[in-house]
Specification:
The protein is mainly alpha-helical and 483 residues long. It has 19 helices and five strands.
Amino acid sequence: MNQSRLSPQHQLIRSVVLLMCLSTLLITCLRVIGHGFFPIDDALRHVAKVLSGKSWADILIIRPEITMDSHPGWHIILSAFQTLTKCDKTVLLNFSVMFLFLVFTVPPVFYFRRGEAWIASIALSAVFFFGSIYRLFYGRPYIISMALILLFCFLWDKIRDKNKPWNELIALSAMTALATWIHGAWYLLALPLVALALARHWRVFGLMSGAMFLGVLCGAMLTGSPLVFLHQMIFHALEAFGKNDFARQLVGEFQPFAGEALVFFVIGGFLLWRKARGEWDIRVVDNPIFYLVVIGWIMGFFASRFWTDWAWPALAFWMALEIQAVLGKYMDSFSWKRLMLAGTFCLVLLLAVTNDYGSRWSGAVSKWPEMENKEHRPWLPDDGGIVYNDNMFLFYQVFYYNPHAPWRYVLGFEPIWMTADNLKIYRHIQLTRGRDESYLPWVQKMTAKDRMILIRGIKPQIQGIEWHEITPTVWSGKIKQKT
């Protein structure tokens, strides 16, 4: 139907559905933040780094091979927002959560002819794969790469069907540049290209490979040191997976997942539904989107992020396509029934995501050491001192609450950034599951300016250290004075 000839009723229904979908996504995010949701990991250090105005070398004790920021684009975006608004760290953190959630969830509402199909897919994921939905609120730049996966899913067949798909290729290249500059994991962009190869779409493979290659180069050039940046990101990945004895020593999201068995139930349900409708078509599974789901799921047994960050976005897109196919065949685009069904999808999404089951949105409230607190200050490092810590969670929190602190941390957001000697000590602490004697090499390094800060339910018994519970379960220790 020609849009210029739509009746007022048709225009109203289409506009109301679009407004409902967009409003639901916005309200969902606001409601989660309204619960007091507080990301517990990298979002905190990104905000704190921007507020500190320091380089990582002034924040962490790092190995010499690490010479530049891994997320320069994201820090520039946060810095620009903070400069423009003069906001405090809480607002900046909330901006991180909201901006990235909406960057991922809003564009597909416009991608699909039936935007409510995307809402239904997200609602379905909230029921079966809530961990993936939860990660959309982490306020971390990997969500930009997840948004790139959605764009890939949307563009590949349009590039296939056009003789000169220049606009699509330019859009893909631009988004790839942004993902490289903001997130940095450019080497993982090979995954959707592998999916294209498995689907045997060689022309599309060539065109999209060229566009993404150009995007990676442009994104690297935006960093100001393209070769160093590209090399450092590869170095980071290889070292992160090669400097440990057991998987449990890796950061949580680099550890393997258990298989996400419900994926078979969900995909099988959609395929059986097609079969029951008499609409089976091998192209439903013989396409790059489905192959990307399979690749990411298999690689999830190596590291769970392949599932959450690469396979699940493709699965969400695939499910939305299947839902749209049913809606398109059995429901008029401009019927009042569409409006009611879309409203149902929106309500389910809102309730499924925003309910505070198990205090999942409100359970992170706690107290942490703060430099401005006169009672805390004696138990924090002196100017030029070092925090010896064995917990990245502690780094995120203490750095967030003390972005301008005049000390550095032994362990930050990734163990392989540690110097070789400190990494060896840290790995031994992990292997012994935190036995007190494992910390003695750090005790021998400590000076009067330094502090060892640990999260423990009971007082540590590490020799040579005087301990004080600075906040509940957070113990700070300093070298005992010789008498």
